Amino acid sequence: MRERVFTLPLCGNAWIPFKTAAQQLGLEVVIPPPVTNETIALGARYSPEGMCLPFKINIGNYLQALEKGANCVVFYTNSRAGDKKHGGGGGGMCRFRHYGHLQQLVMKKTGADIEFFILGEGGGLIDQLREITGKGTWEVIRALRVLFKKLRVIELLEELSWRYRAVEKRSGDTTKAMNKALEYLESVQDFGTLDRLDPESFFASVETFDRQPLRIGVVGEFYLLVEPASNCHVIEMLGELGVEVHRHLSLGEAVLRYPPSFILGKLMARWLNMSIPPRSEIAEIARPYLSCSVGGHGRESVADTIRFHDAGCDGVLHLLPMGCMPEVTVRPILRKVSEDYNFPVLTLSFDELISEGAIRTRIETFVDIIRLRRERREERHALPGS
Amino acid sequence: MKIGIPRSLYYYKHPRLWTTFFSQLDQEVVLSPPTNRPILEAAVRYGEDESCLAVKLVFGHIWYLADKCDEIFAPAYYGLEPDRHSCPKFLGVPDISKSIFGPDVRFLRCEVDDGMFEPGMLELGRALSANGRTLQRAVSEALMARKRYKQELHEGYRRQLSSEKAKIVVVGHHYVIHDSYANLSLLAKLEERGMEAITIDSVPFTPIESFLRWDFAFETMAQLEEVLNHDIAGVIVLSNFNCGVDAITVPFVEDKVEQYDIPCMHLILDEHTGEAGLITRVDTFVDTMKMRRVG
Is this complex's ipTM strictly greater than 0.85? Predict the structure, then answer.
C-alpha cells in the first residue's frame, strides 16, 4: 500500500488546528496553498456549473494539493441533522450534505488518483478517525481536544482583530499582529498552553483611537463567513473603512450547533468553552417571519439579523454563494425584516465571476449610508426637546 | 370555503391527492390554470431572482389565486421516506408569500414527513371542522386517488415501452417536465418528431442503496436503473437554471447514462429561454439518435 498523504479543503484559518491534530495522530498532511483567483478558476473549470462557490473552491484546493503530493482527501460533512421539522439544519437539507460524494465523482473525472474519506457519514466520527489513523480512542479524543481548543483561540483572535482594525491608528497594525499570533499558534501543541492563552495580549502593540466605530453584523452561509478569499475579503474591507464586524456563526459554532454525536457535542462545548443559544430560541426569534427550518443556516440568518438589530448594530451584511438553497430562500424574508425594523441589510451573492472592485463599491456605499443614518440620529438627539 | 391550489411544484407530483381530499370534505377547490403569460410575468416580478424558475412560478400561481379564494393550500413535504428530504426552498413558500403579498393572503398547511400523509391530513381536516367519518373517508379516498394516478402512470409507461417508435427518456422534476408552458412544450416537440417520450416519473422502481438524500434524486437513480435496461435511444435531462438539487443530481445521472452508452443531453431552461434555440437542440439530438440507429 502506498503512503497516504492527506489534504483537506481550506476554510479560513481552520487549517492550522487541523494540521496540528493530524500531526498528533501521525498523519502526513499537505495543506493546499491559500485560495486565490487561480484556485477558484481551477475549481470552476472542473465542477458542475450549477454548484455553489464553496464546492468549486474545494475542488480547486484538492487539485492544487494534488500537485504538492497529496493523495487522500478528508472531508467532514454533517449528516446527523436529520430532525427535519424541528431542528433541521446544518448540512442536512442543503447541497452540503452531498458535497463529499460529488467531489469524489468530479475528481475521478479529472483522472486524479485520489482517495476520499468522508467523515461524519455512517458510523461515528471517532470510529472513522481510529480506522484512518490506527490510533486508539483516547489519542483521537486528545487530538480533537487540541483541535477544537485551537480553533476557538483562532476564532477569538479573528473576532478581536475585527474590533481592533476598526479603530487602529496605523493602518495594517492589526493584520501584522494577527499574522504574528497565527504563526505562534501553529507551533503550540498542548491543550494547557492554549487554555491559558489570553488572545487580547497579541494585540497589545496595536495603538487605537478612542471612538465608537460603526458596527455591522454579518450573517449568511457559513463558508463565506469563514473563508476571506471567497468573499473578496469584505470583512477586512469593512475594518479598513472603520467598521467593527461581528459574525453570527463561526466554524466552531456551526459544528457545535449540529454536532456529530451527542457526547461529542457535550465535549466540544467544553473544549470550545462557548455557549450558543439553543435551537428552540433561534426558532422562536425567527418564527414571526419563518416558521420552519429551510436547511443550512437559513433560519439562523433570519433570527440573527433580528438579534443584531436588538444588540444595537448599525446594519447587517448578508453573504451567500450564488444560488445557495437556504440563503436564497430567506432573502425575501430578510428584506421584509429590514423594512419592518427600519434596519439596513445588504445582500451580496458571490460566484466565481465576482470582482473585488464591484464588491468594494457596494460596501463603501453601504457604509456611507449607515454612517449618515447614525449621524442623523445623533443630530436629532442633540436637538433640544426632540 | 374556497381553497386555492397552485398548479405548480407538488401539484404535479400528486395531482389528485389534494383535490380529492378537499372535495370529499365538501370544500370548493380553485385550481390555478396551467402556467400562462400573466402568471409567468407575475412569477418573474414576485419571485426571488436567484431562485429556479419553478419556485418563481409558485409565486405567480399564488398571485393568481390570492383574490380568488379564502385560503391557499401549501403543503410542507419534509420527505417522502425516513431520512430523505425534499427541496428546502419549498418549505419557505408560505412564509415568503407573506413577506411578498402581505399578511392577508392566508395559507393552509399540511405537514408530510417520512411519507406519512395521514397524520397531517387528519389534523388539517379537523381544522376544517370535518366530522370523524367524513374525514376518515376523505383520507382514504385521497390516498386511493394517489395510488390510482401512480398506477395509470405505470400502465402508460408499459404501453410506451411496447411502442415501435424510438424511445427518449425525459429526466427532470415532475413540475419541470409537466409544465408545458414553462418548458416550451418539450414533450410535444419530441412526439412531433416521431419519438416516444417517456417521462421519468412514470417509471416504476424498486428502491436501491444510495447516498442521495433528496426524494427526487433518490427516486430518479432507482428509476434509471429500471428504464435504461430497455431499448432506449436517448436521454434528455431537463433542469431549471439554478436548481440546487439538479446541480448535485445531474452529474450522477449523466455518469449513469454514460455507463449504458446512450446519448444524453442536458437542457437548462429559465424564463429567458428562446424557443428557436430549443428547437435547434432538439432537432440535432433527434438526428443524432437516428444516425446512431442507422449505423
Answer: yes
Query: Contact A194/A218 with Cβ under 8 angstroms?
Result: no
Given A97, A294, A324, which is nearest B91 (Cβ)?
Answer: A294
Rounded to 5 degrees, φ, ψ at A160 are: -65, -40
Q: How far is A50 from chain B (nearest CA, A)?
A: 5
What is the tally of helices (H) and strands (E) in chain A?
Answer: 16, 8
Residue A62 lies in a domain: yes
Q: Contact A325/B212, CB-based, under 8 Å?
A: no
Size of interface A-B (CB pairs under 8 A): 109
The number of distinct structural domains making up chain B is 2
Cross-chain CB nearest to A50 (options B51, B113, B242)? B242
Instruction: Map grid coordinates 437542440 to a residue.
Output: B281
The domain boundary, picked from B93, B115, B148, lies at B148
Q: Total structural domains in chain A?
A: 1
Coil, strand or helix at B261: coil
CA distance to partner chain B, nearest, from residue A252 (Å): 24
C-alpha cell at A130: 481510529
Range of the domain at B127: 2-148
Same domain, B69 and B123: yes
Residue ranges, chain A, pLDDT below 50: 82, 86-90, 386
Residue A108, domain member (yes or no): yes
Suggest the residue from B45, B50, B266, B267 to mutate for an interface test with chain A (most A CBs closer than 10 A): B50
Residue A71's domain is classified under what CATH number?
Answer: 3.40.50
Domain span holding position A69:
5-142
Residue B22 domain flag? yes
Per-residue pLDDT tens for B109-138? 888 888 788 888 888 888 887 788 888 888
Q: What is the pLDDT of residues A327-373, one digit of tens each?
A: 998 999 999 999 999 999 999 999 888 888 999 999 999 999 999 99
| Strand bridging mode B264-269 / A72-76 | unpaired
